Amino acid sequence: MEWSPNPIMLQLGSLTVGWYGFFFTVGLLMSIWMGHRVFVQRGIEEKHASNLTFATMAGLFIGAHLFDVFFYNWDKFIIDPSIVLDPRRGLSSHGGAVGVIVAFFVYSRVMRLSFHRVADGIILAAVWLIPTVRLGNFFNSEVVGRTTDVPWGIVFVNAGLPQPRHPSQLYEALMGVVVISLAYWLHARRARVRSGATFYLTLGVYFSLRFVLEYFKEYQTIAPNFPLTMGQLLSLPGAVICFGVLWVRRPALRPLRPARRASDST
């Protein structure tokens, strides 16, 4: 299958709307909207949701930009350190995750809020960016997969790649749907789920799935004979830390209280 969409979604005079920008904006708006909802549902004042929106968005962009420069473009940074000031460079999803965590950690400390309560709310908002960003990558023919002979292999014409490749962007978009489903399954059972468990389990599953899906993506930045990609090297510590914290703070689910019999109240 050949894939050669117009990267421009909409052109209105001098206003140009690209597919990536469209999908990123949709994910961002969903994150903001759901963030306000889940914070209120979890008993945190809505003003904190508004403040955290700005704090975490700043952390998202700064972290994503810095990780892209230092982990994916280190050789270029060594030659020209000024690229760290270039906002047009790419965004790293791992860096975005770290930037968001740092932002809400600082905010929760300053405002004397429970870190784990805030973390559970933030992860329920942030997960909406996972599938939308990857759909944007797919329409932009970027972050492509490795060459393959599977029937659903895609030739990314706009990227100048003549061989069929795994549509790894769609794999990760589907992963995003799985992660969203898990996060909101835990949210629906929040009366039983220990504070912080939604955050650590959702993030741990995301990093684990991301580690596996990296085997289908184009090899990035490490020496050709090295067994792991940069994405796997960044995912592995995240998964280990998240599941390690879950183990230390076990059990993640509180036991159900037995229903009281009618005779108990007499």
Keywords summarizing the entry:
two-stranded antiparallel ribbon, two-stranded parallel sheet, 4 strands, globular, mainly alpha, 5% strand, 58% helix, 266 residues
Query: Ranges with pLDDT <50 over ≥5 residues?
Result: none
Shape: globular
Number of strands: 4
Strand content: under 5%
Main sheet? 2 strands, parallel
Distance between the termini: 71 Å
Given the helix and strand composition, which structural class is it?
A: mainly alpha
String of helices and strands? EEEHHHHHHEHHH
What does the average pLDDT come to? 86
- Count of helix runs: 9
Strand order of the largest sheet: 1-4
Radius of gyration: 21 Å
Share of residues in helices: 55-70%
Give a short synopsis of this structure:
The protein has a domain at 2-186. It has 9 helices and 4 strands. It starts with a strand and ends in an 18-residue tail after the last helix.
